[in-house]
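Q: A reviewer asked whether we had any structural model of the full assembly, not just the individual parts. We don't, so I'm hoping you can provide one. Inputs are below.
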Amino acid sequence: MNINGRHYRTIWLGADGWSVEVIDQTKLPHRFETIALRTVEDAARAIKTMQVRGAPLIGATAAYGLALAMRADPSDAGLDRAIPFLAAQRPTAVNLRWALEEMRRVLAPLPSAERTAAAYARAVQICDEDVESCRRIGDNGLALIKEVAARKKPGEPVNILTHCNAGWIACVDWGTATAPIYRAHDAGIPVHVWVDETRPRNQGASLTAFELGAHGVPHTIIVDNAGGHYMQHGQVDLCIVGTDRVTRNGDVANKIGTYLKALAAKDNGVPFYVALPHTTIDWRLDDGRRIEIEERPADEVLKMTGRLPDGSVATVEIAAPGSPAANPAFDVTPARLVTGFITERGVCPASEAGLLGLYPEQRRAG
Amino acid sequence: MNINGRHYRTIWLGADGWSVEVIDQTKLPHRFETIALRTVEDAARAIKTMQVRGAPLIGATAAYGLALAMRADPSDAGLDRAIPFLAAQRPTAVNLRWALEEMRRVLAPLPSAERTAAAYARAVQICDEDVESCRRIGDNGLALIKEVAARKKPGEPVNILTHCNAGWIACVDWGTATAPIYRAHDAGIPVHVWVDETRPRNQGASLTAFELGAHGVPHTIIVDNAGGHYMQHGQVDLCIVGTDRVTRNGDVANKIGTYLKALAAKDNGVPFYVALPHTTIDWRLDDGRRIEIEERPADEVLKMTGRLPDGSVATVEIAAPGSPAANPAFDVTPARLVTGFITERGVCPASEAGLLGLYPEQRRAG
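A: Here is a predicted structure for the entire assembly that you could use as a starting point for your response.
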């Protein structure tokens, strides 16, 4: 999508043809900076410190990270070292594991000398596939927005609530949850997005608001506490969120607080959709209770970074001195609260049967 | 309760015998400062800018504010001017209206010359009654905590989640939601409090954590998004929150986000109690849908105040530049999600019948 009139993806090959460039998302929305990843350690650090984040982008970065690893050491030992090293950087998003397994599938059978070129080629493909998946998610979600718009008075916006950032900067382009929103906006359907700020890291206020603003989509930032109130008052037509992992039964791991919004949507009859590419589905886990939930540093809760009046960026301690904090990064929304999944293959119910209807190749041998 | 070993109430008469002193809660937890209110305008500003906040303390401040008004102009005109002026400062907490109506009841029949002394006397009484109410709320809630503790292994803490600050600094002393917690802690029952930070003004992280820490009660600050996750994982035994207004049918207006926690409590079988004195009950409103919800400035969402590394206090802009924000301050939790009310007269179901069981004098003439 566009930033200052220039089209960006979130990850691309550098002008040297081998280093990998990404937008440093820890600097947004205060600074727009890109960084070059030149080693597998750079890629790992970018994932761990959330310079790149969002399940699909984590997968894409891991794929490129493995290409960087192959460049340094394309041996079997190099492959066996790099894959678990990258996999260990974040535990919850299954796209990370998916991308690394896909890279191993492609690279393991090859002679060492061919692995680097093959790794770059597959990483490029993974990124292109993600863009195409998100574009199709956009098409499939657009149909849902059109249905709501058809019931509105002319000019009245469709109000969509989203949590965290499942936007184009969480993916390679388009986004998952945002793809239908961008498609609708570009098609001239009036949309307005309630952007949950998404504490503690404020990816909503920092990233979703940033990218919606850059694209000209009307939106309003609200605290995470407010969405239920707006649903009670008929001011939310639709919720669309992304996910870090969907289990076989349709349970949804996503940014902490997603579960609360899903409860409120259910209580108020607001459709609650989860947008995802197939790479986010964990076919091996039967239900969400077994998903590992990442515990992140307490400082993310106790401190906040922003712009001082002089434009410089500073971090302030916001809580009572000496009080401890806990910081679980994700929660699991049970499938029963999810209206449906918006995938690159279509929209389906949040259930094993629903998912298998779209992905019949994942049926277990009977 | 104690701050740095000294006992404080939140509001008291100054050494001059007529000015009113309060803790400036907008400075907490970064600075502990008290301010003197010398005019009705001072009192109004303290309420409006949330130097004092919390439904019972707003009521107490309004009572003293009226005493200050009488000191300047005890005429009927003065009374008729000061009461609506103070009432207009915050719309949601019904204690404000209650305190002003109570003051009018006492003052209106008196000759002007007697009003100032009578106003101070009733304001002092209102504060003392609030302390006594909160103490009894503590006793009544303590019984609930004891029940949970009895099912625990020895030494295992009772985990209580609270939202916003319904602590002693929201009242005159003890607090509403916190009173049972302080009583349990003081009685040697191990308790641990999950403190919702409570965006946008962070009264949980700033005030509840501050006062629990000052009293030595174990607690952990969490973002507002996290409570549902902890309830799903059996780590919350009980929710206790305060309220700004309870309607006749048992609906509960409280800090924005309370509704989401009540939904999660219901979904996980966690008891959800609301602690309140009778002054918070609006007997004239049949249900919560008609409660006016205060919309506060967007800057509360878009900016955050905290301590810089050098100890100075600064405000930073945290969101994407140019993005608008909305800021509803309260939401309404339907009575069906509330396990019960903890009042100074006992614990009752969240219903008209439940409330009338404790307050039979409020039965409507049949």
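A: Points you may want to mention in the reply: Chain A has two domains: 2-129, 148-362. Chain A touches chain B through 64 residues (CB under 8 Å).
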